[in-house]
Amino acid sequence: MPKLTIVRGISGSGKSTLAKKIVDSDESGNTIMISADDFFTQDDQYKFDFKLIKAAHAYCQGTAFTICQEVKMLWFIFG
């Protein structure tokens, strides 16, 4: 059965670290992570801009919605 897990917490609390461990431990390959950090990463460089945080969260929500329609297991990170 597919499931959606949302991990929340303050900056630097280990949300991404926890999610990466869970994704890495899934041998089926059906678990993925969506992170607001991905929105701010281009060419392997992280460039956070607080003015764009709503857009980053909208990116996560839209991506999660699309994946849920495809019925995959999902780890969703709001950072």
Question: Kindly, what is the distance between the CA atoms of the first and last residues, rounded to a whole number of angstroms?
Answer: 26 Å
Counted beta strands: 5
Global structural class: alpha/beta
Instruction: Report the principal-axis shape.
Output: globular
Q: Extract low-pLDDT stretches.
A: none
Give the helices and strands as they follow along the chain. Answer: EHEHEEHE
* Main sheet overview: 3 strands, parallel
Estimate the mean pLDDT confidence.
Answer: 85
Description:
With 79 residues, the protein is an alpha/beta fold. Helices cover 41% and strands 23% of the residues. The chain has three helices and five strands, in the order E-H-E-H-E-E-H-E. The chain has helices at residues 15-25, 36-39, 53-69, and strands at residues 4-7, 31-35, 41-42, 45-46, 73-77. The strands form two sheets. Strands 1-5-2 form a three-stranded parallel beta sheet, sandwiched between helices. The chain has a two-stranded antiparallel ribbon with strand order 3-4. A hairpin with a 2-residue loop joins strand 3 and strand 4. The mean pLDDT is 85.
